[in-house]
Amino acid sequence: MFKSNYMHSFTEENYLKTIYHLSTTNSLVVSTNQIAEITNTKAASVTDMLKKLSDKKLINYIRYQGVTLTENGKNAALNIIRKHRLWEVFLVEKLGFKWDEVHDIAEELEHINSEMLINRLDDFLGNPSADPHGDPIPDRKGAIQQKKMIRISEMNQSECGIISGVSEHSSIFLKLLDKLGLTLGTHVLVREKIEFDGSVIIQINEQIDQTISRELAKNILIML
Amino acid sequence: MFKSNYMHSFTEENYLKTIYHLSTTNSLVVSTNQIAEITNTKAASVTDMLKKLSDKKLINYIRYQGVTLTENGKNAALNIIRKHRLWEVFLVEKLGFKWDEVHDIAEELEHINSEMLINRLDDFLGNPSADPHGDPIPDRKGAIQQKKMIRISEMNQSECGIISGVSEHSSIFLKLLDKLGLTLGTHVLVREKIEFDGSVIIQINEQIDQTISRELAKNILIML
DNA sequence: TTATTTTTTTAGACTAATCTAAAAATTTAA
DNA sequence: TTAAATTTTTAGATTAGTCTAAAAAAATAA
């Protein structure tokens, strides 16, 4: 097996993905410690890897300052994310997995290296635009269309919309949403916001009312 | 990510698979050099790995003598082979790959670790009994039913049967079979065996006659 | 604005998997 | 049945990715 310049190790790919996620959710510039926390490693290990990724021109790295992704690095990260999300769609749509069961498996599948494979999988799945958690899937050129969504916690009274994403992917959280009937596509109307504890009373699918905690309301994303 | 006792590294898995293949096609006891050749490594590296696999009770290893798989080792190998072959079926049946294009991708996919995934994939594919090359797929308990097949080179004049497997998996060989119309399921009748060079004149699908070389005849497997 | 705390990097070491070169065991052949 | 050839193992290095402990830089607070 040969390894081209355009291929990166399993570990390098995970770092790139982590940097991408951090730089899009927090500040553009990502710190060593942030990466260490997410990848479950020590800061010293991260520093070593940052040097390596910098040598490969995948990140812009300034000692003690932090990193950003280069164009190449960003493309590589988006490609991994594309693969991860397409595999998640496959697992749910074709193999009958639940949305809380697919993350770890997709975490392995995302490192399979074949452009032909992933493009054919994309077609086989009907070129889906979002994964089972509502996260957008980059197309084969790396273009990603982020839909405008707000958290239930940010909605005003009597506003309504459709659950279209989540900002927390843990199994325990997703299973709870299942139990409460708060899956993707569900219609939600904000009845009342409780100031005391941040909980929100919502109407689900224009039927029953339910009170959800601030923690829940913060992590459910709505398209108005 | 945690790693249980029942999980083996990517590399260990490849050694187990190689030992399984060698011990079923050649002699039961496999030598260091044989493994080195197949895995594209040096004998010294193989020796190191054999010690490790022996410590893990996956092989029976006697210095200077060779190795056999233990029960555990055999099960591990069969599981990898099961995964490899199921993924090959998926690639061909669902994603439209040709039978000569799937080996390298399946080589990567076979290391994805999830029993649930592979069992669901098995069901999704309709529990196939053979892969696109006719090789039998072990069931979830590791049972493998080897069909009785003979090479065209071993057939007698006027014998006939169905192409049901190949003993060579290179892309160049499989593409040639495509070109000659010698795909799985094809009916073959032996018209004449040429003593001079071992070539064989066969009738294909009860229609046209074709001469194939000894090299070809040796690697096409027929069910009578 | 100096002192303290936090973050990041360096130095040096470890493990898995590999290698080359040399030694040891086995097999083959004269 | 000994000598030569082949195979296998050992010894010692290397690389990728990780670690701990200590040093250096940056941020925060008195």
How would you describe what is shown here?
- Two copies of one chain form a homodimer.
- Chain A is of the alpha+beta class and 224 residues long.
- Chain A has eight helices and eight strands; from the N terminus they run αααββαααββαβββαβ.
- In chain A, the strands form two sheets. Chain A has a six-stranded antiparallel β-sheet with strand order 3-8-4-5-6-7.
- In chain A, helix 1 crosses helix 2, helix 1 crosses helix 4 and helix 2 packs across helix 3.
- The mean pLDDT of chain A is 95.
- At the A-B interface, helix 5 and helix 6 of A face helix 5 and helix 6 of B.
- The first copy, chain A, binds a DNA duplex (30 and 30 nucleotides) through helix 3.
| SSE order of chain A, one letter for each helix or strand | HHHEEHHHEEHEEEHE
Show the largest interface: A-B, 18 and 18 residues
Unreliable sequence segments of chain A = none
Specify the oligomeric state: homodimer
Q: The biggest beta sheet of chain A, please?
A: 6 strands, antiparallel
Fourth-level CATH superfamily of the largest domain in chain A: Ferrous iron transport protein A (FeoA)
CATH architecture of the largest domain in chain A: Roll
The average pLDDT of chain A is 95
What's the number of helices of chain A? 8
Distance between the termini of chain A: 50 Å
Strand order of the largest sheet of chain A: 3-8-4-5-6-7
State the CATH class of the largest domain in chain A.
Mainly Beta
Looking at CATH, which topology of the largest domain in chain A would you report? SH3 type barrels
Question: What is the number of beta strands of chain A?
Answer: 8
> Which structural class matches the secondary elements of chain A?
alpha+beta
Helical residues, percent of chain A: 40-55%
- What percent of residues of chain A are in strands? 15-25%
Described by the principal axes of the CA atoms, the overall outline of chain A is globular
Domain unit count of chain A = 3
